[in-house]
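Everyone, describe these structure tokens:
***
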Amino acid sequence: MTHSASEDANGLIEERVAQLRPIFDRVILGDFSKNIVVPENQENEPFAEIYIGIEAMLEVIREKIDGLEKDIAQDNAIFANIGDGLIVTDDERRITIANRAAQALLGFTSDELLGKLVTEVIKVEDEEGKPLVFKTHLTEVMKSDSLPFYYQKKDGTRFPVSFVISPILLKGKVTGSVEIFRDVTHEKELDHAKDEFINLSSHQLRTPASTIKWSIELLREDGVGLLNKEQQELLESIDLSNEKTISIIGNLLLISKMQPHYFRFDQVGNSVEELVRDTLEKTTAIEKKKLLVHTQFSRNLKKTLIRKEALEVIIKNLIGNAVDYTPDGGKIASALTQPGDTTQRFTITDTGIGIPKKEQPMVFGKFFRASNAIEQKNVGSGLGLHLVKKIIDGYKGSVSFESSSKGSVFTVEIPTV
């Protein structure tokens, strides 16, 4: 190549670079809108393929950006119009999104929320008005399942809230969180009205049930003359049904009492082991059904400050179910261990009828009774396991189970402090 040709080539390169530089400057700033004009006479243009390649790459980027902008617009429309409050935070817990419902519920404007630490604008309290502090960085989903939570509004008033807070994970790292929350004032009012109705109705029903019980005892004591065999069997049937009614009334009253103040702690520790042994000893059906009972208790078990009344409901219901639904001559095993300093584990195992697999998700529901349990034992309120779950959740413990046609295993983690 001659000196003149070399100079011409260098000049062409400088010219093409000068043409592309404004476009690249825009790209650096995030602006991909400028098109590259490909020379018409491509055969004589040595940079034609480069022009075409860059323009094709920019077109792909434009399409991706358009798609993202559409997704963002759609998401923003959903966020803005969703009925529940929605707040999104970054990895420093600063608010990046607050929809209209969140602004209305909290009484803040968008400008007052965006960029602020979520803990600065959302004050959380328990039912008694004590401030609650959440973890700075969430690593798992947090729900307002058991205890009542209250959010404080800008004007100082507060409202009961139900919420779910989920971490935003990117490549295993928490980069923020998403919170959905709603005002449950109406639900609480309905619950209160329901509890008042149950409480009043249960007290009203107790009187006739007690009268029937007293009348049955009078008949048994020959207060009105001797009963024949058929009359005695009928009396036993009446007594059984009346006892079921009394049990349901008692459970309904207990459910109505289960407000936050119910889950208080005793001043003196209670022995779970003593309660288990006492319950097994007083359950007369064990001897009647000739059940084989095995117990295993670890040494040096700690006591728990959970109130004794609550513990009795847990232990008696679990042992009662194991006994009721285990056939004559079956086996029951109870175990008590101390897996940690703050937890005691109670396990009750039986060789009973089990719980059908398709019905297992409903086990802790109110008034639930398994279909095979109804066939075998017509007496039962369907409230026992519901009460166990409600109480143990209230004390921040846990209850789980495994079940098959060969029997069931229920495990309760009981806090000891």
